[in-house]
Design goal:
The protein contains 5 helices and 7 strands; from the N terminus they run E-H-E-H-H-E-H-E-E-E-H-E. It is α/β, with parallel strands linked by helices.
Amino acid sequence: MFERILVLIDGSEASGRAVNLCMETAASLGSHVYALHVMSPLPTVDLLADYIEGNIHFTRLTSRAQALLDDAKRVGEAAGVVVSTEYTFDRRPDTVVVSRACARGCDLVVMPSTLAAHPQGFVRDVAQQVLLDGETPVLVCP
């Protein structure tokens, strides 16, 4: 039924539940899983300062992202699931989820209920935006 599942990982408890549910589902269906972590890019001034200091903040962000994805991959491998991972920087994680799900031909998106700051300063529900903007079914883990 679901051959390709995208799971969004943000490091929250709900994200951990989403990963576990995704891997159980994928194992029972023989699905491939794409684990995705989206980080907000640094503001330009902070990015320049970080570059001058030797990319310390950037390295911490990407190391944390890779650790979260590696954890998801281990959970998948323990369940016998093939897991591909990716992290990226974007201010609109919902847009990234919708585009990656479409590009990878995903049949299902599994994600935590997540709030994120929008570039204009208001808070948006990422899961709600993925539901509104995408065509792929979404399973939200509270």
